[in-house]
Amino acid sequence: MFVSSLRQAINPQPITTTADTTVEAVIALMSRARTSGVLVLDSPRGNETQRDQLMGIFTERDVVRMIAASQQFKGVAIGEVMTKNVLTLTESLTDDQDIVTVLTLFRQHRIRHLPVFDANGTLMGILTQQSIRTVLKPIDFMRLRRVTEVMITRVIHAPVSTTVLNIAKLMAIYNVSCVVIAQSDHQGLTPLDSTGGVWSADSCQIKPVRPVGIITERDMLQFRNLELDLERLRAATVMSAPLFPIAPDASLWEAHQQMQRRRVHRLVVVGNEGELGGIITQTSLLQALDPMEMYAEIEVLQELLQQSESERDALLKQLIARNKLLESLALTDELTGLPNRRAMEQALPQMLPHSAAQEKSVYSDYICLFAIDVDFFKRVNDTYGHPTGDGVLKEIAARLQRQARANSWFYRYGGEEFICLTVGIGPEAAWEYAEDLREAIAQEPFTSGEGVEIPLTISIGGAIAPLSGITPEGNKIGQDPQALLEFADRALYEAKREGRNRVQFCPYSEILCKFDPNPLDAR
């Protein structure tokens, strides 16, 4: 019985024909349908009076073989040149059949098409490498493996001056589905075979070449359908270019996605300098899911499960520690080492009630927010460069941290803007704290790596409100600081407008009216 994933991979409407159809008609049909193979039946598909009898199969590879052998096409029936004794897959009534079963058949018999019949002998459709690749979902496995692990390194290639007929002969001789068209980076590189105009694999290893195009079996089918003169037609004229190469260190999942996006069956692999490194095909991707390798992976997992309890605990602790490290990195600004905006948004709801409860002063139920912006920071970047600008931000972060008070946290909000959150501090103390932060930056210049002294100043916009205040939307300010941030930003704008290097607070009475529905006074 076919498992669901295999059933999904079956193309239920394969292109079919009869044995008396001419080769030219079949090639035209394949070209229109953009299919790589046609099934040859003893009667037209859809005849309900009898079951489908498979006579043979005709693929792009057969077209290349005929071109290379200079066989006639006109007037030849497909039954004379098709591949007979076709390997098929029949649905079993007792055993499960899955995609691994099909991959094994593809590998053992070196085929790319597999007609499928049900238990009664009725044609269900056809399986191809492409149809299987569309339903495979081993994403994690493919992401772990690199192109360099499965790519074909001995690539058949030829110079741009080679005729298309010689390209077909190369495909037939080496039994490959494509030939890469390449140029030499060395003037001393000459063709080994003057009649075929190709380079040998040994020659390639000594003198690398640069791929500029590719010709595939499907291209050959199109050329023959157009009745082009393949003996005179040069590769440079009809090759597919430009190429869409892939790097050897890319993952197989990237290769799979690029093939789907470009609607191609193969990708050329190039090195750092654009040299030909190999080729990766649909066959390569399927080989990455080789049944033996998959079974080996399963065996490794089984061995891990059989480890002692202590070993598993150690592995679990390592995993937890690694996850914590990753979480920390995601919440930390890489440049300054301060928590980032995301960290502020996550931590605020948890820390505010706890911190306020610890504070015993008369202002223990207040939260203060400073929006801090570096003055003329763009001028620093434009004058001294971004590395110096990064150094300025790191220095400012360090100075702010040295001035930190109890129940006070600094965050890098983005760009040259920082946020300071403080709880348990009243309006007067908040003003003094903001002035201390401003003076810590302005009191001495920043010295760059080249010894240049750069004056630094910051502008601070402050806003303070009771923790128990409620916004018009019904949110507690301790859990939704966005409104308080808007007041601080407004004050920051005023500080900038008044000349910078100063502290400006949003009028307290204005904030109190927003967060306290019944303010007693403005204190």
Automatic annotation (TrEMBL):
It is an enzyme of class 2 (transferase). One of its GO terms (molecular function) is diguanylate cyclase activity. NCBIfam families: GGDEF. Residues 10-73, 82-144, 239-297 form the CBS domain. SUPFAM superfamilies: CBS-domain pair, Nucleotide cyclase. InterPro entries: CBS_dom, CBS_dom_sf, Diguanylate_Cyclase, GGDEF_dom, Nucleotide_cyclase, Rev_trsase/Diguanyl_cyclase. It comes from Laspinema olomoucense D3b. This is Diguanylate cyclase. The keyword Nucleotidyltransferase applies. Residues 365-508 form the GGDEF domain. Its EC number is 2.7.7.65. Keywords: CBS domain, Nucleotidyltransferase, Transferase. The keyword tRNA processing does not apply.
